[in-house]
Every structure is written in C-alpha cells, then in structure tokens.
Sequence to fold (386 residues):
Amino acid sequence: MFKTTILILCVSAIMLGGFMPASAATGDDAFEYLSGVYERFDKKLGDYLIAELENWLAIWPDNDNAPRGHFILAKVYEDRGARHQALATYARGIFLHPASEQRSHCREGVKRLASRIKTYKERVPELEAMLETAAPGKPADRFFGYLEFLSHLDATKLHARTQSESTRFVIRFPGDRRGDIVNLWAALSWSNRNKHRETVLALEKLEAVYPTSLQLPCSRFSRADILYRELGDAAAARPLLDNVIANYPSSSYAPRAMALRAEISLKGDKNYNAAIEDLRRLIDGWPTAPGVYEARLSIADIYEKKLKDYDKAAAECGRIAALDPTAEEGIELLMRAGRLHESKTRNYALAISYYQEIVARYPDHMTIPNVKKKISKLRDKVAEQD
Fold:
C-alpha cells in the first residue's frame, strides 16, 4: 500500500506540473550509464545488462559508442557462458562497424570462441574469411552482410536471434530489395530447430509477400522437401516440385526438384517405371547437374533390384561405362553387366562381350588376369550350349 501511494503521488505531481519536464534521453547518456554498470559488473546483473545493451543498440544503432557497445555486450554474453550469442554479437560489431577500433578485439573474440565451440572448430579459417568481407558501406549493406554471416552459423543455437535480427533488418530498411532473402533465412531457421510445420508456413508467407521474388524456386523446393521428408506429405510436395521444374527450369533447384520427384516415385509411390521416367528427364534436361551420374546408377539399380529386368540393367551399366571409356569406374560397371548376364540371364555370349571390353579398355589393370579366366570359362559354357 505504501509503495502504491508513492507511485500515485508521483504521477499526480507530474500531471499537476509540479516537476520540470525531463530533457530527452540521449544515446550518450544511456551508454555512459550502462558502461558504468558494466565496469562494476555483478554477474547477477548479466540478464539486465544484456537486455539493456540490446535495447540500446536497437535504439541508437549509429551512435559513436555503438562499436564499444557491441564489444561490451559480447563480453557479457561470453562471461555468462552464452558462447554462440557472444560469437554472433562480436560478428555483428564487425559487420555493422567495420572501420571501428573495436574490430580487432571483436575479431579476436570470434576466433577465440569458434576455436572452442565444437561446431566451428574445423571452420575457423572459413569464418575468418567471411569476417574479412566486412567493409564500410551503406547501413543496409552492412547489416545484410552480418545476416549472411549469421545464416552460416549454428541455427539450432541462434534461431531466436536469426528471427529477431531479420525482423530488425526489415523494420530498419523496409524498402530494401533483399527483404525476401532475409525472410528466407528466417524461415529456414525454423527447420534447423526441427519446427517443420512452422518452416512451411514461414515459406508460404515469403511467397505471399514477395510473389515475384527470385527466391521462389528455393522456397518452393524447400517446402516440398520438408513436406515429403519431414511431414510425410508426398501429395502436397509433388505440385510444388512440378512448379519449380516447369516455371524455373534454369534454376539450380529444377534438377534437384526432378531428383526429389523421382525419389517420391521410387520410395513413396513404389512406382518404379515412373521413377525411371523421372530420372531420365533429369538426365536429359540437366545433363551437367550434380547428381546426374548417381541418377544413371539408380536407373540400373531399379531395373536390377526392383523390376528384375537384368537385360536392361546390364545395358544401363554398359551405357554409363561408355560415357567415359577411361574412367576407373567403368571396370566395375562392365563387370556388373557381365555378372548379370553370367548369373541371371545365362547369356554367356553377352557376358563375354562385356568382359572383353574390360580387357580392351584397361589392358594393364590388376583385374585383367581374372577377367581373362572368366572369359575362358564362359567360352566353354557357350560351347556346351551349342
């Protein structure tokens, strides 16, 4: 009751004009106070300092003390054992204030923490190289550079930061043309937390807000991938894949969409002929795309293991081997084709032809003596058949 009475009296005095109005708060005054709190740092006040410094940096991002503010905030995070948050804050200080005297201190902080965090131990040179890209420029460009760096960090630990920093970017730079990319990073950060339904919704929002975005192929493929692999909804995934394939054929996501479509046909629908058709569309439509060689092998596997069509499986192996007559993989492919005819179709003449091809292409290979023995034995079997 006593505290409530004092509060009421204070408010009443202000309303009655009993106090002179306070001057507007300044960033310098607030920072001087927070800096003083930090200097007499009590670990029990860590949460308070983190909240106040984060708020101060959001309100006065361009204040002359902002670089020092980032360094202090990162140190508080680090002192409290929040190493991922500390690393991200050091990096934010570098990207947002690349010409600051604090840059070297923040860089040392990133290197120190990255070398201690298991996730990043092998990536220290990579992270340092990304930090070197920080350069003076427009505030939006510097902030975007920081978000790009953040997108390469462990989102399972930095999901909330990714969301809040993405929102901060859009609020500060509402007309920036890269808003769709920022929203994409924020959406995918849900997936890294295994929040798959939330990811799908966030990607749907991206597509609704930015209907002409260049990120649509990525967004739709990602949605399809999550719907199929994580949520088991192949029916919802397929039209999204078809959209990417039909409308964005030159995108790097088109062949990936075709490959995923084939996987759904193979593993989800158990429609093996449809899977082969999808894989051939991938091979013919994007012959230089990653995964095409594996697609050819998959066709041979489907013929052999699913359809039991050993003639077509052997022929597929032969076609793959012919793509690069000098490749070492050709030996195993031709051996596989020969074995299929030797043990499955009992077409010994065709088996011999594949084995002879090995001898002709790879005369000095260590397997040649054994291959020649196979040929000799199979000739005896051919003679018996005759």
